[in-house]
Description:
790 residues, alpha+beta, Chloramphenicol Acetyltransferase, eight-stranded mixed sheet, six-stranded mixed sheet, 47% helix
Amino acid sequence: MAEARSAVSELRVPPNLEDGRDSWKIFLKETRKSLIRGYYRKRNALRNGTWPTSTNNLLAVFLIVLVLLLADPAPPSRPLSLRPPPNQQPVTFFARIIWRLADYAPNFIRNAPLWLQACFLSWIVSASFFIVLMKIRQYLLRMLLSYHGWMYAPPKKVPTKIKIWAVCVRLVSGYQPSLFSCQRSLPLLPVPPLKQTLKKLLASLKPLHTEEELKKLKEQALEFEMNLGSKLQKLLVLKSWWAPNYVSDWWEKYVYLHARSPLANNSNFYGCDHSHWQPTSLPRARAATVAHLFLVFRRMIDREELRPLSLRSTIPLCMAQYERIFSTIRRPGEDEDELVHFDSSESRHVVVYSRGLYYRVDVYDSRNQLLSPTAFEQQFDWINEHSLKHKDSVCMEWRQMPALTALPRPDWAKIQKQHFSSGLNLETLQTIEKAAFMIVLTEESPPPFSEKASWLLHGDGASLWFDKCFNLVVFGNGQCGVNAEHTMADAPIIGHMWEYAMTKEVTDRLYTEKGHCIPPQRPFQQAKCNQPIWLLWEVSVDIQKSVSQAYDFSIKNNADMHLIVKEHSAWGKGIMKGFGVSPDAFIQLALQLAYFRDSGSRQKFALTYEASMTRLFLNGRTETVRSCTSETAAFVRSMSDDNIPREEKIKLFRKAASVHQELYRQAMTGQGIDRHLFALYVCCRGMGYKSKFLEEVLSQPWTLSTSQQPHQQLSQIPDCNLEPFRDKVSPGGGFGPVSDDGYGVSYMLPSDHSIFFHVSSKHSSKLTDSDRFINHIFKSLNDLKTLFEG
């Protein structure tokens, strides 16, 4: 198009690349960087591979053996017995045994001086000892971490047995691990017994089916267990012996990459910044600071300076998902998408979207230093002026290009193959793919909480690049949030990065009184920075048509989403703890009561999905807690019966809460239901079989999909219950409903004084209404509080 051709003159060429005058300097500089990066990667790989044994142990043993050999430099002239002679010291006897190994050394070693022979033997002995010690400690730690009895012990009254176990874990673990050190010592996810899974499954379906339906399911389950299920179970057990995780690779492939629905409102999730406090009202200063903090977080991951998370300061969690939260893209495919991750050496820029125009911003200066927030703010100011000047020089479809990523995956794959496989469009697309992340600078200023959350979930139809690992969205009033793609990492991982940046804004002074970024302190000096590069598109008539249709589809899809975010500020988890109930169980029971009331005269219960983690195991991701149990149903029905005494209702409540906690623990320790059933189904289809039983139980819709948002994952964080920090907590984030006639509920318990709820549904459904349901949630919470207070 004419707009694209006329805009080519705006394309900036980075300094020192205009000709070949400095090619040798550039070559030497890049070679030096590559060697340094290679050194640190090899060093980290060595440390991670040998943890929990330190390479210092290798050096210590080498020196000790060398001293012993040099203290007795004469090799034995006669055969040694297994016991030292009475007149010979054990140390000397041990040294002579080692000297005997020289007989098996190559000739050039045996003919070498004694000191060289001693060095060679010391190295052989110390290396052998080190490898044996390393393997023993790794397997011993894996065995210790396979024990999960600690999860059932109350934190305030820990039994002696658990204390001894914790001491053993810390002794075997040794020194503080780096980010990926614990991976080799994590246990493998076990395959639960088939009979156990089927028994739990039928129990979970009891509140949702009639007696006749349950009888039929029991017959199908028994037939499956005795025939096909037994074969599939053996295959899963076999896979669990050699695969890092028997389910995670299939989960990523078939649940995420094989899904053909649009990412917007279906897969991607969002997160919000501070609830009531705002550090600055200047959007570009806010974008600069948060982007800088994100890149510092990436540097900590690359250097493995970020410490692995642990439960109760003892039990490490799997950190594998942190490898891909930056510089990752989900490429569309007609049948299956592809997740592509770029190394940090290839991804040295971010891409900024402003007024429909895209810009590449290099994040390092000429000295390979990370850009400071002040430097970022200057870059964003330039982009703001440039986009304001040129926003009318391009067609509407140019500005709506991100709408293509909101299409169903096969449609976007066909368009990308047809129009983005060569030329200028391919270059721009590759720049976006290799970016560390996206930054969206929008002039919109939606009010909190619901309107802001809706924008973060699906944008305005033409701003968010949903394929990208995550989009940092900064609004015109200085507020911000994040939209993240789900395939590469789960919410707790993005939440960890987000919490790091938001906490820094609270604890550190990052803005001036006028709201601008504070200049870096001396002796740091920012070197020369490349000017942002305007990324161009070649927009043909066919692309215009595709983009226009994609935008219309996106607007229609977004209009159907009904998202409500509301704060319950009357009280928080402190009240629940005072009742002696787990806050998560308390809220889950309130959600079940709310849904029962929301169903009206139908008086229905919902198949409920509550996300739990399995990161106690290698490459673990999530598991499902089926929160709607028979005990929960009994309690919920009792709340509608005035003839049941209050004490009986409390008894039913505590029983339901206890069962829920037990299910949650089982899910965390690899004894859940749904990932096992999913893996059985994949095996079944892969072997060419069909199972009516598996298809029926796995096709039931998750009418109520819930998740508790992670918080306080940092080791050092201000107490959110203190008055100065109550307005600075995050309301968390959320997601769209899983079922067209269901609800998606996300909740955050940041302090003892407030709870945030994110409730999503679809306007097109005649059964759901987010406003109505969140009112039922609030009423249920207050009814439960009244029940306990009498």
